[in-house]
User: What shape does this take?
Amino acid sequence: WPPWPALYGFSEDCKQALSARVAAGVQSLPWLHRVPFNRELVSEALALPARLLTADATLSAYSPLVEPIG
Assistant: This one.
């Protein structure tokens, strides 16, 4: 099975850089959730703004933009 970047036409060395706004947002979030990647997703949703759908109901405490599913 190919790695996920190849599935979407990205090269193996493709990396997403965090914008300064998203990185600062992660720092300012309260510690309601300890998983760094999930906190990054919340910060990204707040910065865009965009709705974040998640199976982790804990994340919904951050913002109305974070919507638990399932």
Q: What stands out?
A: The longest helix spans residues 36-47. The CA atoms of residues 5 and 15 lie 10 Å apart. The helical segments are 4-7, 20-28, 36-47.
